[in-house]
Design goal:
The protein is an alpha+beta fold. The chain is about 25% helix and about 30% strand. The strands form 3 sheets. A 6-stranded antiparallel sheet has the order 4-5-6-9-8-7. A 3-stranded antiparallel sheet has the order 3-11-10, with no helix packed on it. The protein has a two-stranded antiparallel ribbon with strand order 1-2.
């Protein structure tokens, strides 16, 4: 493997390096292959390690690279197609819902969630934790906040805790007449809990989809779903729904 020096270019050096690295990924590396360490890569391309890190972080954000605990930086597989749910008149857990309920607790919500739900900050809400897998890989983690007023008939005896209670909360929620929902998407960084659930490093890029579900003229539930940005690509259809489509095929050596 020869040494490649970067020429003077008007664009930022890390961005030009990102282009050079992309060409190298396509021609020299296979999906899942571990990249050389930062010192060797920086020497090969004649750049400072800080510049190299910027380029690697950009490629991770674009889904070309993955940083894995105990492994290092590897070439990422193509993004997977996952349906986020295009029906705005379906409660979480209804129909062919692909999420798996993991747990449910009754606790005080974050201040921003309490504001969105128009509840008192000290008023506990049901917090349902759900996960989503595709091809055996975790692609999303969700926190679903449901005020007790939305599920007044919930019986603690029938579903005392855990996944069973989560499913019971969702069943009771479906008794309400859903008036609609609205979603917003933003780029974020994985916190400790999300990183653990998604098998990512803290600070890894994620896509956060926040959905409000309306019933009885109010926000009856709030979903905060965190998707792996290296795995998922979100697009919006004419219906206003959200889908994640298969990304373009990548050439592997």
């Amino acid at each position: 493997m020869g040494t490649t020096q970067l020429e003077s270019v008007p664009e930022p050096k890390y961005w030009h390096l990102r282009t050079v690295l992309t060409e190298a990924l396509d021609s020299e590396f296979a999906v899942g292959e571990i990249l050389p360490n930062e010192r060797d890569l920086a020497a090969r391309f004649g750049v400072a390690r800080a510049t190299l890190r910027q380029a690697l972080e950009q490629l991770e954000l674009e889904g070309r690279l993955q940083r894995r605990r105990g492994v290092g930086t590897t070439v990422a597989p193509p993004r997977m197609g996952v349906d986020v749910g295009t029906e705005q008149h379906t409660w979480p857990g209804a129909g062919e819902d692909a999420w798996q309920s993991a747990d449910c607790t009754l606790a005080e919500p974050p201040a921003t969630v309490a504001e969105a739900l128009e509840t008192d900050r000290a008023e506990p809400v049901h917090i349902v934790r759900r996960t989503r897998m595709t091809h055996g890989q975790p692609v999303a983690a969700e926190l679903l906040y449901i005020p007790r007023s939305s599920v007044p008939e919930l019986s603690a005896i029938d579903a005392p805790s855990g996944a069973a209670r989560a499913r019971a909360v969702l069943r009771e929620l479906q008794r309400l007449e859903l008036e609609g929902g609205e979603s917003a998407v933003e780029l974020g960084s994985a916190g400790a809990d999300d990183a653990k659930a998604l098998d990512r490093l803290p600070g890894a890029p994620v896509l956060v989809v926040t959905t409000r579900y309306h019933a009885d003229g109010r926000t009856a539930a709030l979903s905060v779903a965190t998707y792996r940005a290296d795995t998922c690509r979100l697009t919006f259809g004419d219906s206003g729904g959200v889908e994640i489509h298969q990304g373009p095929e990548r050439r592997a050596s």
